[in-house]
Specification:
Elements (H helix, E strand, L loop, with lengths): L1 H9 L10 H6 L1 H15 L5 H14 L1 H13 L5 H8 L10 H12 L2 H7 L7 E2 L3 E7 L5 E7 L3 H8 L3 H10 L6 H14 L3 H14 L6 E2 L12 E5 L6 H7 L2 H22 L1 E3 L7 E3 L4 E3 L5 E3 L2 H15 L3 H11 L8 H13 L9 E2 L8 H12 L8 H17 L2 E2 L1 H15 L1
Amino acid sequence: MLDALMAALNAREGTPVPTSPLGRLRRSAGAALRFGTARLLHRGALDPDTVAKLVLSLGELKGTAMKLGQILSYVGTDLPSPVRRQLALLQRSSQPTTFAEIEATLREDLGPRAEELLRGLERTPVATASIGQVHRARLPDGTPVAVKVRHPGIVQAIRADFRSAQVGKVLGEALVPGANVKEIISEAEERFLEECDYGAELRRQEQFRKLYAGHDTLVVPRGYAEWSGPRVLTSEWLDGRRLEDVAAHAPQAERDRYGHALYEFYIGSLYRHRLFNADPHPGNLLFGAGTLAALDYGCVREFDEPTVRLLADLSLAVREDDTTSMRRTLVALGTKEPDAGPGLDVTRRMLRGFFAPALTRGVHRIAPDAAFDLRQMAIDKRNLGRLRLPGKLLFLFRIRFGLHAVLATLGAEADWREVEARLAAVSRREL
C-alpha cells in the first residue's frame, strides 16, 4: 500500500500548484482537506483508501495543506499506525515540480552561474516537500551539495489558503486549541511565507551553524551563498539514516545521545539564544555516525528576553504543579486569566501535556501518547477557547509536541525533568 501510494505521488510530476482560493477548493484536494482532516482530528473510522486520497490531495496542494498532513503524521500519536505511516510519506514526498521548471528557476535566480550548477544537477529530486524540492548536485570543484528549489506558485498558494476561514479553524484544532484565531492565522501566515524566502533561510542556517560549531553531536550544514538566491538554497550534502531506521536498529546508548542532542537543539536554543527551529518533523533529521544533522531552517522563531524568562518561569511552575504561578505567567504571556474550577483544570491539563516528559523524575522513555491527545483536545476545546492564547505561542506548541513525538519514536531515555530544568535555568544566567 505504501509503495503504491509513493508511486502515485511521484507519478503526478508537473501538476500545477493551485494558487487561487476557488481553484484550491475546486480540486478534489479541497474536499479531502475538509473531510479527511476533520475525521483525523476527531478519530472517526478511517480506511486506507480514504487516507490515500487525502495524502495525494495534500501532496498536490502543497503549502499549508501539506504541512498539516506532515504535522499529523508525527504529532497524532493516537492515530492508527497505518494512517500515520501513510501521512508520513508527506514528510519527504509529494508531486514533484518538472525539471524544466527547476531549470527556469535556477536560471532566473542565479543568472549565468546556473549553467555551471545545472551541469552537475541530478534530474530526479531526492525529496519533495511542501515549499520546495531537493536535488543532489556537484559544484564545479566536485563538492557534493543539496540544491533546494522553490515550487512555482507556492507563495500565491499559501496566501490563498490564508484567505480561507477554514484554514484558521483547522490550524487551531491541529495545533493550538484555545488560541486567538486571528492571531494564529497572522502568525502562521507570516512564518509560512518566511519559509518561501530562501535567502532568509540561508542567513538563519548560518546563524545556527555558528551557534553549534564544534558541538560533539549536532551538525548544521554549510550554506553556499554564491550558489543560492531567493528561490534557491544550496547547502553541503550530508548522508545519514532516517529516524525510523535509527529507532529500529541503533543501540540504546546511541539513541539516548541523539535524544539529548535533539532536546538541546530544539529547547536549549530557545532558553540560551532566544530563538528556535520550529519545524522538528522527522524528514528534517539525518542521523550519521554519532552525529545528528538538522536540515531545514525555513521556520525559525525569535523571542525577546522578557518572553523567554516567562517561558522559563512557566516551565518551573508546571514542573512544580504550582497553579498560582501558572495562571500568573500565562497572563503575563498575553492570555486571559484561566477561570477557577473546570477552566483551570483544563489549562493545567494542557500545560502538563505541553511539558509532559519533564514531569516525571528519573530516567525514562517518553510514551507515544505522553503529550498530545487529539480526542482530549477536542473535549477541552470550549474551555481552552476562553484562554485566547496569543499567536506567538503557536510554534512553541508545534515544537514541543513535535519534539516529544520524535523522542518517543526514537526511544531515547533520559531524566527529561533534569534536562528541562538545567536548560531553563541557563536562560536566567545568560539573559
